[in-house]
């Protein structure tokens, strides 16, 4: 039986509210306001990074909150340790997003140790995967759901222009747990294509909550148009 927190996002949109280091929007208060805004727009869930952001967002939204922390930018950096995962639960995350790859973790613990600790603390686990083998490993470790988040970023698959629909379709066909589509979903049509391919829910970040990247797409298009006139 699917936990009610996970069931609340079935067939719906989850919005990733994160800002990169050094950006003007890198502030818990700003991310909390962004989270409120996307919920007002109909998002069924929010994905957020950083304990301070999670603590700021939790009291302000009543939707499913997927939380994570990032340590560095290479290797296993998405909620890499058992301690990090427990901190996310304590900060208010309903679901903790963790690196779901088969790579060694900084604390030397297997993924199953993180999953067991989060479950004992009352939370659920979303495994961010880069391949079918990652997903199978994560499900065997006890993950409640998996995401295509790392597809194209671990060296096992090429980086696709849009969402990796081939991997999504493969995971949906072979896994008994919900599969969330995440990564390079650039517009509503691509989000819909993920649901059609069988995604349990769709997670969109940059295309909704990253003004710098959104603005760049406009400026680049205008520059291209100007050069072709």
UniProtKB/TrEMBL annotation:
Pfam families: NanE. CDD domains: NanE. It catalyses: an N-acyl-D-glucosamine 6-phosphate = an N-acyl-D-mannosamine 6-phosphate. InterPro entries: Aldolase_TIM, NanE, RibuloseP-bd_barrel. Coiled coil: none annotated. Its EC number is 5.1.3.9. The keyword Glycoprotein does not apply. Keywords: Carbohydrate metabolism, Isomerase. Pathway: Amino-sugar metabolism; N-acetylneuraminate degradation; D-fructose 6-phosphate from N-acetylneuraminate: step 3/5. Converts N-acetylmannosamine-6-phosphate (ManNAc-6-P) to N-acetylglucosamine-6-phosphate (GlcNAc-6-P). Belongs to the NanE family. HAMAP family: ManNAc6P_epimer (MF_01235). NCBIfam families: PRK01130.1. This is Putative N-acetylmannosamine-6-phosphate 2-epimerase. It comes from Kribbella speibonae.
């Amino acid at each position: 039986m699917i936990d009610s927190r996970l069931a609340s996002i079935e067939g719906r949109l989850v919005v990733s509210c994160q800002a990169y280091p050094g950006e003007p929007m890198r502030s818990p208060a700003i991310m909390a306001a962004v989270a409120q805004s996307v919920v007002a727009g109909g998002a069924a869930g929010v994905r957020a990074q950083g304990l301070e952001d999670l603590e700021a967002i939790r009291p302000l939204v009543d939707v499913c909150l997927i939380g994570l922390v990032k340590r560095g930018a290479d290797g296993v950096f998405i909620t890499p340790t058992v301690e990090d995962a427990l901190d996310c639960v304590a900060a208010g995350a309903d679901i903790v997003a963790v690196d779901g790859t088969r790579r060694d973790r900084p604390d030397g613990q297997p993924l199953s140790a993180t999953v067991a600790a989060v479950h004992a603390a009352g939370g659920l686990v979303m495994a961010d995967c880069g391949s079918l083998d990652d997903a199978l490993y994560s499900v065997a470790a006890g993950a409640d759901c998996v995401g295509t988040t790392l597809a194209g970023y671990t060296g096992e698959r090429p980086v696709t222009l849009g969402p990796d629909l081939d991997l999504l379709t493969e995971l949906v066909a072979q896994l008994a747990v919900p599969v969330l589509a995440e990564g390079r979903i650039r517009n509503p049509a691509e989000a819909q294509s993920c649901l059609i391919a069988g995604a349990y829910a769709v997670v969109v970040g940059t295309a909704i909550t990253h003004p710098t990247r959104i603005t760049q797409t406009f400026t680049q298009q205008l520059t291209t148009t100007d050069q072709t006139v």
